[in-house]
Fold this protein.
Amino acid sequence: MKWGTISMWAVAGCAMAGPATLREQVERLVPEQVAAAVRAQTGAPQGVAPDWAGTLAARRAALLERFDEAAARAWLGEVRQRLLAPEAFGVAHVAVVRRTHGNLAQPANWAAVRELNLKGLTNEIAVLTGLRGEPSVRPLYQPPPETFAGEMGLHWDARRLIFTERAPGRPSRVKELTLADGRAVELPLIPDPDVDNYAGCYLPDDSLIFLSTATFIGVPCVRGSSWIAHLYRWWPASGTIRRLTFDQEHNWHPTVLDDGRVLYLRWEYSDIPHYAARLLFTMNPDGTGQRAFYGSNSYWPNGVFFPCQMPGDPLRVAGIVSGHHGVPRMGELVVFDPGRGRFEADGAVARAGSPNRAVKPVILDNLVDASWPKFLDPTPMTRDAFLVAAQPGPNALWGLYYADLHGNLLLLHEDPQWAVLEPVPLVPRARPPQFPDSVAASKKTGLAKIVDVYSGP
């Protein structure tokens, strides 16, 4: 791909920002890292610096010596066009969740949606346009006050999405939202008034995996007050619902991999080390073949929230590395490659969006409280670049950012009233292969295979 003439786009978020914020954005972006990211996107040799990189560096140095707002906006606009290649970032519409900054509605790392603090919560599902230029946002679905709406999952045809809604005094429910008219309908999952259903995920055959507290199990260390959710599957045509996991503790974040398997986060309450026992697992959509994907027998990472597969690579996955106690769900954005290893940091490729790309397996309960920048809700766009919600520092707003494995972190959109979370590009996706159902649901007995691990090669 060749870059033509670069026009100077307005930088969204900068219109409301003062000179200090603009300067921070310029300081955060290093031209050598920008050039490395562009070379990775275009397939150019990494050792060859493009002609524009030197000019970009000289302009940045002049800006930092004598700061000028107009020149800073122009410089950031050029960086934006360089990094957001139209092949990957030329999406017309991106669904986002907007929440007031005072309550981000993130559950504790041992809890779930039903434990959310809904007091004063204001949020909405919205659509962002103009990603590569000057974004604008329009509301799509606004729940009643103090009602949570989030955990969006896009259908394969990009015409509808599912999300979780929870109102005060009512259980969590999964709703389906038609994007054309903003109409939301509750899905007929487990209807009991003392059961929460949430975190739905479309499967390739249009059945649904979701989390439910129909287990009636509680987390031991909080005396059972946190209701544990496991994975269930719902077939819309028949209304059949089948439980898929039977674990001691929570499951979180089911998502479908390109090969049709389901990736999810599983917590094991293993005595004192339970603060570190959240493992990435995979299974077949019928619940068979459950096995560790990353982190077995490891004290790091404590948990990898919002796991997602990187495009164009069957092994690479990313997620938010966070602690047990401490900040909820947010943390460092890390890419893993189990082909390199599955123990602690052996398979960690790098931290994204941070000048410190190295990943160290620190053994600590409140793992990321002092780590910046912090991230939520990553959406991989290329093999090494993301749309992601981020807070660069303790005094910054939560906004929508571009982040990559080369250390770049570029503000795309922020709002003084709203935190911008859960970016979901509204583009159709190819359906992964469908696994045949191997469960004989009519039988009351099963077969268990016992293998002697000491025999054989």
